[in-house]
Amino acid sequence: MSNSKPRVIKEFEKLDEGTQQQIKLAYPNGFAGHLVFYTNKDGLKVSALPFETDDKYYLVKMTLAQAKEIVREDEDYDDSGTLKSSAKEEYSEKFSDLDHMADYVADDSGSSDDDDDEGDDLGMSDMGDDQDDDMED
To answer: Strand pairing partners for 7?
Structure first.
């Protein structure tokens, strides 16, 4: 992660539709196995989904239960929690010109990326939750 990028902490539902679609493309097998944990400015351990664009580093706030629920209720994912091929093709074409998406799509080689590991501890106690209010796309 580049230190010069602004860090944005936001809930998935508060992200614009394009960013949500990019996140789905980056995590075609769901979010639950990719959550990271950090201590927020209030000293609470919280979980989030990391996502990096060309100009921002996002931590998308969600619990493990929320990560599973978002995928379960999203029409772009099938019953097994995998991004439908129609959505994957649409989003791949839509975002093919974005440099940061090439990294995510290239990493999707069919492996589940050890989904039994439910996240990593980032040790990011310096990241406050109030950053989502002052950053808009």
So the answer is: 57
Does this model's pTM top 0.85? My answer is no
Helix (H) / strand (E) element for 19: namely helix 17-26
> Do the bridges between strand 57-61 and strand 7-11 make them parallel or antiparallel, or are there none, so unpaired?
parallel
**In this predicted model, what pLDDT tens digit does every residue of 109-125 receive, in sequence order?**
444 444 444 445 554 44
pLDDT in tens, 96-107: 888 777 767 655
Residues 6+ apart with CB under 8 A from 120: 36, 37
**What strand order describes the sheet that includes 57-61?**
7-11, 57-61, 45-52, 36-39, 120-121
Residue type, 2: S
3-state secondary structure of 126: coil
Give first-to-last CA distance, the chain, whole Å: 19
